[in-house]
Amino acid sequence: MEKEILFNELRYPEKYQKYDMGKEAVKPSKLFSHFLIPLIVKLSLIGQKNTQDIDPRFNEIKKEQYLLLENHMQFLDFYIEYKVIGKKKINNIVNLDAYQVLPYWLMELGGCIPKRKFTQETLSIRSMKKVVDKGGSVGVFPEARYTPIGRTSPLPDSIGKFIKYLKIPVVTIINHGNHLVKPTWGNQKNRKLPIKAVVKVCLTKEEVLSLSVAEINERVREHFKYDEYQYQLDNNILIKEDFRTIGIEKILYKCPHCHDEKSMIGTGTTVKCQKCGAEYQLNENGSLTNLKGETVFSKVLDWCDWEKDEVSKEIQNGTYRFEEDMETWAFPHPKYLIKIPNAHVVHDINGFEVRGNYNGYDYLWKKEPLDNFSVQLEYSWPNKKYEDGSRANIFALHTSNDGLYFLPKDPRILFKIYLAVELLFNMAEAKIKQQ
Question: In angstroms, rounded to a whole number, what is the distance separating the alpha carbons of residues 370 and 99?
Fold first, then answer.
């Protein structure tokens, strides 16, 4: 008898249960907002020079109800958020795998609203609306990820509709320097650098009610423009640590000279191609210099933009394809991460196709280009370590009530997949708009 094929589902043994993503968020207790959070923030920011540039209008509404939107570079962002808002009670949208950082019940008591990344479901939106209807405030990282390159990640068009739906003022916190302190691609200790949070009232309640969705999206995107490397240059910030390129091959994966995608390696202060020998110095001011010839890219982000163009060309000519059998984990609930047999993963112009067998049943996950406007990357995933003790580099796909985490053999492929997912989404969305 042919085994059942389960689309976008895994059949778990009875001892495993799925987390209730629609569970109503609780109002944070005074224990959290007045004592525990301030203590954690104070301890976490010891030795970290940080300043806040606060819009005077924020002081007028800080005790009122608002939607807080913040850019995202690392966990440090949460500490800065709570330093800005003080003892205010707020319900933050939090990716479900963060519920493993602390006991998940503690995250619930802290008022967190769970979300699986890049899923087009309404449970979290309903949860936020319930909070707002009861007079509460909510916090959201609309980029829905740590920026891998220190620059604004794409924001979904739905953010404007969401803001209109909530009908409350919008405040933005844009952090500067957090990526420079510890970039996501570098499994390193923090650099000793200053950081700054710019706090603005992005939209008053009157503007939320009167402006169109398109106008709101434009306003939010204008507030969310940031570039960590330009910020570094403008403020003459020098990174003198001798480990500043360790891991940078995860984003600078393609050699600009021989075009090989599997030979770049960052060591110390340089990134080198092990195939053709090209070697670039990452200078203290964030610029790049070729130590053995012509400097093709003097800026990290220019290199990344070129890689994006290269992926776009592959998509356009139909040659983009990634295929591999990968170590795989299922994540139905924060209480457990389940190792399952290796999955066969294909990513091409048609999206993702994941096949495997678990608990006696074949399964098939399909994600078309429009299903994900981006993909979750974790460059220092705490749940899996390599033989040398360093944290694993993974990507994850989610449905509204389940998740699969994949460990590729070469972490340099992750950024290319990330670029391809966003390019394929943009292309598919553009076709729909033209119809």
Answer: 27
